[in-house]
Amino acid sequence: MSFFRRKKPSTTTELVIPKHVAIIMDGNGRWAQARGLPRIEGHRQGAQSVRRACEVCVELGVQVLTLYCFSSENWKRPKEELDFLMGLLKQFLIQESKTLVEKNIRLSVIGRRDGLPEDVLDEMDRAIAKSAHLTGLHLCLAINYGSRQEITDAVRAIAQKVHEGACTPDQIDESTISKHLYTADLPDPDLLIRTSGELRLSNYLLWQISYSELWITKRAWPEFSRHDFLDAIEDYSKRHRRFGGL
Ligand code: IPE
Ligand code: IPE
Ligand code: MG
C-alpha cells in the first residue's frame, strides 16, 4: 500500500488500525487569524483536511470516521460566519458526492435537522441516498450535533415506548440507550482526535467515547496532515486498552 511506503523508516511499531476514529476538527479560525486571514479562510482550508483525512482512512482500512463539523452550540457565532459555514457545507456535499462513489465511501449524518437550511438538508439527503449502497469507509458527519441533545432525544424516545407499553423501565439497559442514540448503527469510537490543543469534549459523543483513546494535538485542523494522522495511529497502536480490567 502506498501509505506504508510513505511511512517514516525509523518507525518499528506495528500499526493497530482503529475501527472507528472520531475527530473534533478545531482551530480553523485561529489558524486563519494567525496568518492575517479572515476566519472563513480557515474553514475553507479545513475542508481540504477533511478530504485528506478520508483518504488516509480509506488507505488504512479504518471502517468509520466521524467528524464534528458543526455543534449545536456553534449557532452562537456571528451570522456571517454561520452563512459561510452552511454554504461551505452545501458546496462540500455537492462536490464530494461524486468522490464518495469513486472511493466507495458511505455517507451518513448525525445531529438534529431542525435549524439547518432547507438547501443544505436537500444536498445532505441526496448525498446520503447516492452513497447508501457503498461498502467502504463509513463517513459520518456530525452537523448541528450536541451529545446532550442526542441523549435527551434518546430518553424521550425510550419514555414514549414505556408509555405505549412497548417495554417496561426495568427492561432498559445500556444497549437500549445505545440503540436510541443517533449513532445506533456505529461501533463506539476507538480513537478520539482533537486538533488545536483544547482539553475538552465540547459536547461530542459523550456516551460513545467512554473508553475511547484520546489523542490531542496543538496542530490546527487546516494544517492537520497525513503525517499527523499517522502519528495519532502510531500512538494509538502503543496504547494498552484495559476497559477496567488488568
Ligand atoms: C472548528 O474551528 C470549526 C467549527 C467549530 C465550525 P473553529 O471555528 O472553532 O476555530 P477556532 O477554534 O475558533 O480557532
Ligand atoms: C467544537 O469546536 C465543535 C466543532 C469542532 C464543530 P468549538 O470551537 O465549537 O469548541 P469550543 O467552543 O472551543 O469548546
Ligand atoms: Mg474552536
Fold and architecture overview:
This protein has helices at 2-5, 28-33, 39-60, 79-102, 118-131, 147-163, 174-179, 226-237, and strands spanning 20-24, 64-71, 106-110, 138-145, 191-194, 213-216. It is of the alpha/beta class and 246 residues long. It has a single domain, classed as Decaprenyl diphosphate synthase-like (Undecaprenyl pyrophosphate synthetase). It has a six-stranded parallel β-sheet with strand order 3-4-2-1-5-6, with helices on both faces.
Give the SSE layout.
Blueprint: H1 2-5, E1 20-24, H2 28-33, H3 39-60, E2 64-71, H4 79-102, E3 106-110, H5 118-131, E4 138-145, H6 147-163, H7 174-179, E5 191-194, E6 213-216, H8 226-237
Parallel strand pairs: 1-2, 1-5, 2-4, 3-4, 5-6
Helix pairs in contact: 3-4, 4-5
One 3-methylbut-3-enyl trihydrogen diphosphate is lined by residues 24-26, 68-71, 74, 198, 200, 202.
Shape: globular
Main sheet overview = 6 strands, parallel
**In sequence order, what are the helices and strands, one letter per element?**
HEHHEHEHEHHEEH
CATH architecture: 3-Layer(aba) Sandwich
What gap, in angstroms, lies between the N and C termini?
Answer: 35 Å
Our estimate of the beta-strand percent is 5-15%
Q: What does the radius of gyration come to?
A: 19 Å
The CATH class designation is Alpha Beta
Give the CATH topology. Undecaprenyl pyrophosphate synthetase
Structural class: alpha/beta
Helix fraction, binned, reads 40-55%
Bound molecules: 3-methylbut-3-enyl trihydrogen diphosphate, magnesium ion
Q: Numbering strands along the chain, what is their spatial order in the largest sheet?
A: 3-4-2-1-5-6
Q: What is the mean predicted local confidence, pLDDT?
A: 95
Corresponding CATH superfamily:
Decaprenyl diphosphate synthase-like
Uncertain stretches: 1-5
Number of strands: 6
DSSP helix count? Answer: 8
